[in-house]
Amino acid sequence: MTRARSAPTTTNDTRPRGTLRLLGPAAVHQADPAAAWLPAERQLLRLCTRQLISYRPEPDPDDWRALAPVADLAADVPSTYNAGLGTSHRCYVVHLRPGVLWDTPVPRPVTAHDVVRGFKRLANPLTRHPALAYFRGTLRGMGRYCDEYAAAVAGRPATAALLAGFQDAHDIPGVFAVDDETVVFELDRPALDFVDMLAQSCASPAPAEYDAHLPGSAELHRHLIANGPYRVVSWHPGGTIRLEPNPAWRAESDPIRQQRFDAVEFRAATGGPRDLADRLAADDADLPWGVPSGPVPGHRLDPCLVFNLRDPANPAVTDAAVRRVVAGAVDRAALVRIARAADPWSEVRAAHTVVPPGNDGHREPDPLADPAPDADPRDLLAAAGHPDGLVLTAVHPDTAEDLALARSWAADLGAAGIDVRLVALDDANHRALLTGTGDAPGLRWDLATAAFTAPWAYGNARVFLQPLVGAGPGNPGGYRDPRVDRMVERALDAADPREAVALWQEVERLLLADAAVVPLLFRRATDAAPRGPRVRRAAALPALAGLPDLADVRLGVDR
Q: What is the largest CA-CA distance in the chain?
């Protein structure tokens, strides 16, 4: 995508500020808030989009202010003190900040109707954003709206007109605009983390022009409309991206972001960690793109294995006994060595639970409650009814590190009598497989690698588990269990956070007992990430897994 450029006419300081240069190794394939969910993609969206609520960059990510939600597009964070939160804690009234404009040919205000449109787009059945699981279980009527949306589109050619027609004719009962400046959210139950949910990039408002394009499509990427400090002027998915100042942005309307540069450029790099560090030291770039800039409180689950329980290539994976063989056969110590070599900027440790350290609900494995299998994996596989072994198809991203990790755990499974056919997918196909929005042509699969990052860092007991067990689209393996469903409902209904954490821990125990997911590695950003000689400040954002807030980066050229 290329876009005609006009000179910035903002009220900000217009002195030359230079270009912020980002260099690989992560790729950004999505800039549609309804489809983008990788941390590197959300890092880009923070420059171009606004959310009702956000987080302020702080030099110390352990500072409570780095974790506390603050008003962004909203005039205030809704609370009982400002009448934005009802006494039942089920109704949030949000008033929009004046002066926030869309970068349209004639700039116009962002309205409450745009916020509602953003939530309707999030529910579309084509992209199935992982965060949708949180909103389905919280917003009044969101689950039914998603199901009706999917039913209306099923079996019909997906067109922008079809999707826009459904959204125009149907409303989410718990999301509505009172007027242009006021939007109301009604919840099925109180949710202490709802304000953090509103801070997610997928909860961004959407301009009316987006109704003319399919969510996440190349066509939409040629018509992106910004309301943040920068706008996309050149877009080559997976390659180079160039952002320039958004002329419709006003500093006085944005308490979170800055407009410090004449341009922000993203370039992909194919070399390893040493090559990337050398290029940064040589001033070929300022910061690594998609690499954390500093430590954050919590780890992320990266990667894990999920099983295809909807339509596996080999029905044997629907047997929990077989899945337990897979879980017990993997040599995680070998994976740790591979990951540390490929990712020297993270603390890496073996994972035996779903919720990583530093997040609410993390528990260390209990040898009595979580005994490790002491039998030979081949004997366990034979006891599960497969004395002659199995053949499974496993998919993973097509990066060098993912391939090395996959070859390692596939060899472990081979020693256990399970022959693994590895299939590397590019980002688009891997993402479609995990969200259930499509498969590579002719591909049926049994195992897939996935990664999960906490989108908020406080009161986040549900964030790793709910997407893995939730109803509706977005659950990557399609795992469902009535016992787990009942436990989830109890956890969501719990008024005491300590009770909620205990219930989510029970959800995790049931999930691991069924071996529906196999945790492999935990990672946490350290402060060892390289940076170019011009960088003076790059505050790590916990909500972005330690990636820097690019709108707050300071270079030596700054005065």
A: 73
In the chain, the amino acid numbered 404 is A
Beta strands in 426-544 (DSSP E): 447-452, 517-519, 521-525, 535-537
87, 80 Cβ separation under 8 angstroms: yes
The whole-angstrom distance between residue 445's C-alpha and the CA centroid of its chain comes to 23
Cα distance between residue 300 and residue 504, in whole Å: 17
Q: What is the dihedral sign for C-alpha 11, 17, 21, 22?
A: negative
pLDDT for the residue 440? 60
| CA–CA distances in Å: residue 406 to residues 98, 428, 445 | 50, 19, 14
91-95 vs 182-186, strand pairing mode: antiparallel
CB 66 within 8 A of CB 297: no
Cα–Cα distance, 117 to 278 (Å, whole number): 45
Which of 134-168 are b and which e, b meaning 16 or more Cβ less than 10 Å from the residue's Cβ? Answer: bbbbbbbbbbebbbebbebbeeeeeebeebbebbe
Strands 108-109, 175-179: pairing is unpaired
**What is the rounded CA–CA span in Å between residue 70 and residue 316?**
48
pLDDT at 220: 95
> Which of 457, 524, 528, 467 lies closest to 301, judged by CA?
524
The pTM of the full predicted model, rounded to 2 decimals, is: 0.90
**Per-residue pLDDT tens over the stretch 397-421:** 988 899 999 999 999 999 999 999 9
**E strand residue ranges, 208-280:** 230-235, 241-245, 263-267
The yes-or-no verdict on residue 6 having pLDDT over 70 is no
CA torsion sign for 12, 241, 543, 226 is positive
pLDDT at 158 over 50: yes
Q: What is the dihedral of CA 453, 455, 458, 463, to 10 degrees?
A: -70
Cβ-contact 61, 75 below 8 angstroms: no
420 pairs with which residues across the strands?
392
Residue labelled with tokens 């979580």: 370
Is the confidence at residue 11, as pLDDT, over 50? no
How far is Cα 445 from Cα 433, in angstroms, rounded to an integer? Answer: 9
> What own/partner pairs with CB < 8 Å and gap ≥ 24 does 269-277 have?
269/23, 269/24, 269/25, 270/24, 270/25, 271/24, 271/25, 272/342, 272/400, 273/342, 273/343, 273/344, 273/345, 276/23, 276/24, 276/25, 276/530, 277/530
1 band by pLDDT with thresholds 50, 70 and 90: low
- Three-state DSSP at 279 gives helix
Residue 531's SS3 state is coil
Phi, psi of 509 (to 5 degrees): -60, -45
pLDDT over 70 (residue 372): no
For 436, the token pair is 């259930």
- Min mean pLDDT across 234-243, 500-509, 511-520 is at 234-243
pLDDT computed for residue 127 by the predictor: 87
Angstrom CA distances, 281 to 83, 294, 527, 550, stand at: 52, 17, 16, 19
